[in-house]
Design a protein that fits this description.
Length: 253
């Protein structure tokens, strides 16, 4: 095992300056994550192991929104925030151990992210129902969970299928543009998504706000339905944007 340096040196190795576009993660989460990373490295845990722990905690935190009890909401929000710290740790462990170039770790990480996010939307709807008996919230939560996963999956599968048609040759201009828009890394790649990502980590921080407002059912209900309306508007915009940026010619066989 590599010798574990002190925290200041570990930050230099594991947290390069251009690593984050999310200010919340950069200014808050990374301040705590490096200490957890040092602990994981001393324990000999791999980045994949940290990703699995993160995914389990995130899914558990999301599921705690379903019972509809404020104390459960708070506990769920805490687990989600803690999982977000671990989401930073797995990459830091991978960079220190030299395993960050392996795609398998990213795959495990994405499963945890997508699974917990979809579960949260559904659980939030059930929590609304159990808190105030609003059955419409169950439908809304299920819609958010299902459509978000389906749209994201279809966008990625469409692009991967196109790229697989000409393995060994460079991606076309349309494919490259779609890749850039699908994965936001700077202000030129999805302007609204970049702005949101820079100042706010939308769904996990929304979960924290929801947990605090769960002690006030009327405000809690207002937040849920406001978020649902904004989610619909943003999803329609993303679907339209997806059709536009993915309008590339498939390469000839």
């Amino acid at each position: 095992m590599n010798q574990i340096p002190d925290i200041s040196r570990l930050r230099v190795i594991c947290q390069p300056d251009d690593l984050d576009i999310c200010l919340y993660r950069k200014l808050i989460t990374r301040r705590f994550s490096i200490y957890m990373t040092a602990l994981f490295l001393r324990m000999g845990l791999s980045a994949n192991c940290v990703s699995v722990i993160k995914g389990v905690l995130a899914c558990a935190g999301a599921a705690l929104f379903a019972p509809g009890r404020p104390v459960f909401f708070v506990a769920g929000a805490f687990l989600l925030q803690f999982s977000f710290v671990l989401d930073a740790c797995d990459g830091e462990v991978a960079r220190f151990t030299g395993s960050s170039s392996r795609a398998g770790g990213e795959f495990i990480d994405k499963i945890g992210d997508a699974g917990s996010r979809g579960l949260f939307y559904g659980a939030w709807g059930w929590g609304m129902y159990n808190l105030n008996g609003d059955l419409r919230a169950v439908i809304a939560g299920t819609v958010m969970a299902g459509i978000w996963l389906v749209v994201r999956f279809c966008a990625v599968e469409t692009l991967l299928e196109s790229l697989s048609n000409h393995i060994g040759t460079p991606a076309g201009q349309g494919e490259q543009k779609s890749l850039k828009m699908l994965f936001v890394r700077n202000s030129q790649r999805g302007r609204i998504e970049y702005l949101l990502s820079a100042v706010f980590h939308p769904w996990m921080n929304m979960a924290a706000i929801a947990a605090l407002l769960s002690f006030f059912p009327i405000l809690f209900s207002g937040l849920f339905w406001s978020y649902f309306i904004l989610w619909i508007i943003n999803t329609i915009r993303k679907i339209c944007s997806g059709f536009r940026i993915s309008n590339f010619e498939r390469p000839l066989q």
